[in-house]
Amino acid sequence: MWLLIASIVCSVSVSVFLKLARSQAIHVEQAIAVNYLTAFALCWGLLRPNFAFLHEATTPIWLLGLLGVILPAGFIILAQAVQRAGIVLTDAAQRLSLFLPLLAAPVLFGESFTQTKLIGIGVAFLALLALLHKPTAAHAEPRSRAAWYLLLTWLCFGTVDILFKQLSKAGVQFAGGLSLIFLLAAALMLLWLWIQRVTWQKRSLASGLLLGLLNFGNIYFYIKAHQHFAHDPSVVFASMNLGVISLGALVGAGLFKEKVSHINILGVLAALGAIIILMPR
């Protein structure tokens, strides 16, 4: 169980890092670039990637390239969502992205909808609407921008999940594909920063090492948990998603005193309910 706990802590810690970045004068884009270089190095050293799939004519190179673009873009959007909407709502929206692949499953993966899946998707959709709810008070306009970033977070991470499932369906070795995606994401971020002519900051670059450790740790411990509970994947699925939302809510509301509306709280609770309903059986 410690593997799941480690993965949950790493996931929420990424949100905490992004929450604190502005107050600590950290240039998030620089940290994200170093994060991907760090993740690539860790992936190379710990997962021992195999790149034999690159010699196969059926390998969907375009999927690797697309993920290399969407991952860093999604990370930047995630950072904005955490800053504007807070950890509580952002972590819930990110975990609710699991129902986007379920919507695409009949078309892309040949899976059919069951009554349980339809109920779970319906509850997840209501949860997302509740998370995106904004007040009608004077501060509604900034909250409106926050809602857009939450929606984009949900869309980006749901799309990433779909693309990774497509890679798996194509038979691409996970560690090898992930390594190349990390390397491409790092290269694109560095190119973007060079085009922007940013002033490089030692503090931001160094903090990227920590972000990379947390980001890769989330993935690594999650993989190890799936291997450990190979015959009971529902434990990993439920524990990871419920754990991140619950711990994110405790950290966001307890540590950072984030203010959420009653409807937002209902959205978090509905998200927890949707994950329980959608748990693999």
Describe the secondary structure blueprint for this structure.
Blueprint: H1 2-21, H2 28-47, H3 61-85, H4 87-96, H5 99-108, H6 115-132, H7 140-169, H8 174-195, H9 202-228, H10 233-255, H11 262-278
Protein name: EamA/RhaT family transporter
InterPro entries: EmrE-like
Keywords: Membrane, Transmembrane, Transmembrane helix
Give a written overview of the molecule.
With 281 residues, the chain is mostly helical. It contains eleven helices and no strands. The protein has helices spanning 2-21, 28-47, 61-85, 87-96, 99-108, 115-132, 140-169, 174-195, 202-228, 233-255, 262-278. α1 (2-21) packs parallel to α10 and α10 packs antiparallel against α11 (262-278). It is globular. It starts with a helix and ends with a helix. 43% of the residues are buried. The model is unreliable at 136-141 (pLDDT under 50).
Any idea what the shape is? Answer: globular
Helix/strand class: mainly alpha
Helix fraction by DSSP (H/I, runs of at least 4) = over 70%
Question: Which residue ranges are poorly predicted, with pLDDT under 50 across at least 5 consecutive positions?
Answer: 136-141
How far the N terminus sits from the C terminus, by CA atoms, comes to 19 Å
Quaternary organisation: single chain
The succession of helices and strands, N to C, reads HHHHHHHHHHH
Give the radius of gyration. 19 Å
The count of DSSP E runs of length 2 or more, i.e. the number of strands, is 0
Strand content: under 5%
